[in-house]
Amino acid sequence: MTTTPAVAPRRIHVPLPDRGYLVHIGPGVRHSLAEVVAGIGARRVAVVTARPPEWTPDPGVPSLVVPARDGERDKSLAWVEELCSRFADFGLSRSDAVVSCGGGTTTDAVGLAAALYHRGVPVIHLPTSLLAQVDASVGGKTAVNLPQGKNLVGAYWQPSAVLCDTDYLQTLPPRELTNGFGEIARCHFIGAGDLRGLPLHEQIAASVALKASVVAADERDAGPRHLLNYGHTLGHALERATDFALRHGEAVAIGTVFAGRLAGALGRIGTARVTEHTTVVEGYGLPVRLPAEVPSAALISLMRLDKKATDGLTFVLDGPRGAELVRDVPEHIVAAALEAMPREPGGHA
């Protein structure tokens, strides 16, 4: 996969009252970090980076560089506490800033640390994976995991800017690049339209624009923002059930296929639309089968821990009015839909 230097960077505004910011998308945009830091008036910066020095841009002010722990197993309160301690040792003040440079787990954990330290310091995200560029870096959701489930401890803290440098994507292993398409594939069913076949930077821009519009309408998950969780109820359960052997985008892809099947079982959509879920996900090279060894009962138990599940099993499902939150889905229907899902002959995707 290559990035075309001639591509002009895109700027997408996330229009929030008093907290709006720009998402810059394109090759080389990481090099504008110093300009962004100067624009917010930060005198010093703590840079938490999962990338080597040559891929971590100079913020243009005195800085502390902290090597990131970029993975679900270290996405914890202990890591957030360590980050805040490092910020304090450096003497970071509320008039300074934090920069994240890494994948989705780095973005989430560093965002939460920035939200908590001094009750909130500015944060700038440089997402380096496709998954982080289309999802974690935009919208202000920050969180870490507990043993009981994903993203159960968090806060809303909007970044000051996001720099989605597509040059970073050249450095990704093939599986990690494909993983990022899990969030793009689910956009097909929540209002982005068919993004297949578009250049990658346009797929990123369309996904970010969709998320920006949803976040602007519902910053704190009171209603429409639930749409962004399409495929995530089963997806998060699969991540936990496989001890994260399935990556987030892969699990969301399978969850998207399941959401189509469950919507069909509830009579919300017809057979052709159910099939479309599988066709779209497969078109991005993503998995569509459940892992062989994960029992349906274990997945149902994990889905009950989902943040949306205030009334029984809760899913975002397609329907005659488009995707919407559906509460209290009968367990026997969920179980039957899980049992009807195709499974891998053995091992994880």
Features:
single chain, 349 residues, alpha/beta, 7-stranded mixed sheet, two-stranded antiparallel sheet, 18% strand, globular, disordered N terminus
Write the layout of secondary structure elements.
Layout: E1 10-14, E2 21-26, H1 33-40, E3 45-49, E4 63-67, H2 77-90, E5 97-102, H3 104-116, E6 123-127, H4 130-136, E7 141-146, E8 149-156, E9 161-165, H5 174-187, H6 200-217, H7 232-241, H8 248-265, H9 271-283, H10 296-303, E10 313-317, E11 324-329, H11 331-340
Parallel strand pairs: 2-9, 3-4, 3-5, 5-6, 6-9
Antiparallel strand pairs: 1-2, 7-8, 10-11
Helix pairs in contact: 2-3, 3-4, 4-5, 4-6, 5-8, 7-8, 7-10, 8-9, 8-11
Provide a descriptive summary of the structure in words.
There is one protein chain. The protein has helices at 33-40, 77-90, 104-116, 130-136, 174-187, 200-217, 232-241, 248-265, 271-283, 296-303, 331-340; strands spanning 10-14, 21-26, 45-49, 63-67, 97-102, 123-127, 141-146, 149-156, 161-165, 313-317, 324-329. It has 349 residues and is of the alpha/beta class. It is globular and about 60 Å long. It starts with 9 loop residues before the first strand and ends in a 9-residue tail after the last helix. The model is unreliable at 1-5 (pLDDT under 50).
